[in-house]
Amino acid sequence: MLHVDPDIRRAHTLPGDFYSDPEYFERTKIEIFVRSWQMAAGPECGKGVTPFTLLPELLGEELIISRGFGGHVTCLSNVCTHRGMILVDQPCQPDVIRCPYHGRRFSPDGKFLSMPEFKDAVDFPSESDNLAQIPSFTISNFVFVSLDAAFSAEEVLGPAVELLKRPEANYLKPVGRKEYSVKAHWALYCENYLEGFHIPYVHRGLNEKLDFGSYEVDLMPFAVLQKARSRDGDLAALYLFIFPNLMLNLYPGGLSVNIVRPVDPSRTIIEYRTYANDTGNFGTGADTDLEIVEIEDEKIVEAVNRGIRSRYYRKGRYSPAQERGVHHFHRLICKFLEETEHGQT
Question: Are residues 170 and 296 in the same domain?
Fold first, then answer.
C-alpha cells in the first residue's frame, strides 16, 4: 500500500514503481479519474448540444453538453439507450436529439420521447430509456463533470470558483488550443507544475520576469494555489492546480488551461487552451513565452520519466521549503487509492 508521511520533514516521495507499474496506472484510472471532477467545456462551447469524449485516451466516455435549453447546462450520455449508437457527432441546436441508427428521439435534456416499431414492447418506456444524466457543475462559462464523484463539486472546485471570479477572468475569449504528446507518466507532469523550485534552473526567460524569493504556495483540500510576483512586486500569475489533473493559470491578460490526459504509464497528452480577456495584455508578462516554457517542462519530465525507472532509484525526499505542493499531491493520490482499497467511497 502506498504511504506518504503527513510530516513533510520526514516523508519520502512515491516509489519509482508507482510510475512504471501498469497495475498502479489502471488503479488510478478507476479509483482517481473516474471519481474526480474534470473540465468538460469552456467559453468556446456555445448554445445547443456539443458532443465530447471525456479523457479520450483513458476513460473514453462519450458525453454531450446541452447548454441553453431552459437556461440550464446539462451533461448527458451521448449513447442511445436502444442499441448503443453515438447520437451526436458535431455541435448543433436541435429541437430533439434523434438517433441516426433507428430513429429513437430524446429531448435536449435527455428525456425519451418516442421510438418507432415499439408499440408491443412491455413496460416501455421506462426510466432506463432516458439518457443518463452526468453530474455537472458550472463556473462562469466553464463546465465540469464527474462520472462518479468521490467528493462534492463545491469541495473540490471551490478554489476554481474564487479564481474565475477575479476580474482578470472576465470577458474571456478563446484564442488558442493545442495538444502536446509527452513521453512521461501523467503524475510527473503534475509534480513539475506543483513547485517553482525548478524555475531558476529550467526556465531562464520566465525566471527573469518572476521574483522567485516571493513565491507563495497555499494548500487546500483538493487544490494547490501558487502565487508568483514580478520583480517589480506586482502579481504576475496565479497557478491553480485542481486534483488530479487540471491546471488553471491566471495572468493579468487572461487564462491558460492545461488538462493532463493520461495515455499509459509512459505517455501523456497535454491539452492546452488559452483565453484572452478584454485588457489586450495577454502574452505580455509571465505568459509571454508559454510555448517555450511548455517545451522546457516537457524535456525535464521526459528525462525524469526515464530516470525514475532506474534500478538505483526507489524513493526521494521533499524540500520542506519548496515542495509542499508535490507532497500534498502525493498524499491525495494515497488517499484516493487507500479509500478504495478499504471499500470507502
Answer: yes
